[in-house]
Design goal:
Blueprint (H helix, E strand, L loop, with lengths): L1 H9 L2 H5 L2 H5 L4 H25 L3 H5 L1 H12 L1 H14 L5 H6 L7 H11 L2
Helix pairs in contact: 1-6, 4-6, 7-9
Length: 120
């Protein structure tokens, strides 16, 4: 599961690195990439498990396909929101600052990833 999810995310890495947030925190990109391998996949697993508990049959029976679908629908935006959560979680910035400076559109997605991080 890990490799296929990382492969899916890699397809959108180029789009992600050209975003304003990636440019602003360029020094963190290498650490974030490592973090995705170590922590990001766990977050996707928790997210699939929660969806299965809420009754999503795809998440229950095919968690890997569910996660791949999330990535395909979110594309680079999912990386932006995970990166924002990574930055906030590591104390490099605040959610409010990211929204105020228009690095992210809103806080709901960041809050979702931060909530999942607390479950690890």
């Amino acid at each position: 599961m890990v490799e296929s999810i990382l492969k899916e995310l890699k397809q959108y890495w180029g789009q992600f690195t050209s975003t304003d947030i990636a440019k602003a925190f360029n020094a963190e990109l290498e650490k974030f990439e490592k973090w995705l391998r170590e922590v990001g996949v766990k977050l996707f697993s928790i997210r699939a498990r929660e969806a299965a508990e809420r009754g999503n049959p795809v998440a229950r029976d095919y968690p890997e396909q569910y996660v791949k679908g999330l990535v395909r629908r979110g594309q680079a935006k999912i990386l932006v929101n995970m990166f924002a959560a990574y930055l906030v979680h590591n104390g490099l910035t605040t959610q409010y600052w990211l929204i105020r400076n228009k690095y992210v559109a809103g806080g709901e997605s960041i809050a979702t990833w931060l909530r999942l991080l607390r479950k690890i």
